Amino acid sequence: MVWTAAGWGHLAARSSLPTDGGDGSGDPLVIRIYYDEIGDLATLQSFDVWEYNNLQEQYVLAAVDRAGYETLIEQGWTVAIDSEQQQAVNTNLFEGTGFFGGYRTIAEIHDDLATINTAAPSLTEIVTYGQSYCRTAGGCRTPGDDDLPGYPLLALRITNEDTPGSSIIVESTITRGTKPIFFLMANIHAREITTPDIAMRFITHLLDRYNVDADATWLVDHREI
Q1: What angle do CA 200, 206, 209 make, to 5 degrees?
Q2: pLDDT at residue number 189
Q3: Terminus-to-terminus CA distance in the chain, angstroms?
Q4: Nearest to residue 159, comparing CAs of 134, 143, 176, 142?
Q5: CB-CB contact of 103 with 193 (8 Å)
């Protein structure tokens, strides 16, 4: 089994994972795959090759399990575990709480959006604009052989609903108003663990600074975000 984006998404959904004693039979291995010609990399499409490419030493980084490691050797690749990156992954994935230093899971993001909406009901509105693929398909099976039920797709609208021009939202039906709109999309891909937190920081800034900071107040009053 190779650790694809979906596989890492499976890891991101857990706060902690058990290790196997350090022999790497269950944990993802971070390896260097050495190549002669850069065109050789085209044959690695089924592996979880990272964007990192050391052009001087001619290797790319990848994440595989033990079976993937052995498959690469059988195919004739020169591979080696990158001890520094391996330690970083083991520390971030399997030690402490949270994911990669405390980034929010999807469930935590949804809970935080609900809390924000409850605290500022006249400035925020949650809209369910669709469902994830796994939710529409009745669930998915991850590469780690776990069930993934999927999630509703949520948007948070921020504006002062009492100022003229606000769109009217009734459940999933939106009647467009006249306020200019700024649209920020985050958390599109499995590995974008920073983008939702950037969006959440923007949300927090606008709401915490409303009626405190003139710019934040103007944005919330006269724009839909």
Answers
A1: 125
A2: 78
A3: 42
A4: 176
A5: yes
Annotate the chain with DSSP letters as a single string. Answer: -B--HHHHHHHHT-S-----SSS-SSSPEEEEEE-SSGGGGGGGTTSEEEEEEETTTTEEEEEE-HHHHHHHHHTT-EEEE-HHHHHHHHHHHHSSSSBTTTBPPHHHHHHHHHHHHHH-TTTEEEEEEEE-HHHHTT-EE-TTS-EE---EEEEEEES-TTSTTPPEEETTEEE--SS-B-------STT--SHHHHHHHHHHHHHHSTTTSHHHHHHHHH-B-
Dihedral sign of CA atoms 74, 75, 77, 80 in order: negative
- pTM for the complete prediction? 0.63
Of 28, 35, 36, residue with least CA distance to 85: 28
Q: Which of 78, 49, 77 is nearest to 61 (CA)?
A: 49
Residue closest to 191 by CA, chosen among 65, 3, 55, 45: 3
The string over 90-99, giving b where at least 16 C-beta atoms fall within 10 Å of a residue's C-beta and e elsewhere, is: beebeeeeeb
User: What are the angstrom distances between the C-alpha of 73 and each of 68, 78, 87, 124?
Assistant: 9, 7, 22, 54
Q: Domain map of the chain by residue range?
A: 17-94, 106-222
As a residue count, the chain comes to 225
**Domain 17-94 grouped into CATH 3.30.160:** no
Report pLDDT for 26: 57
Give residue 31's pLDDT: 94
Q: Which two tokens stand for residue 20?
A: 């196997």
40-65: average pLDDT = 90
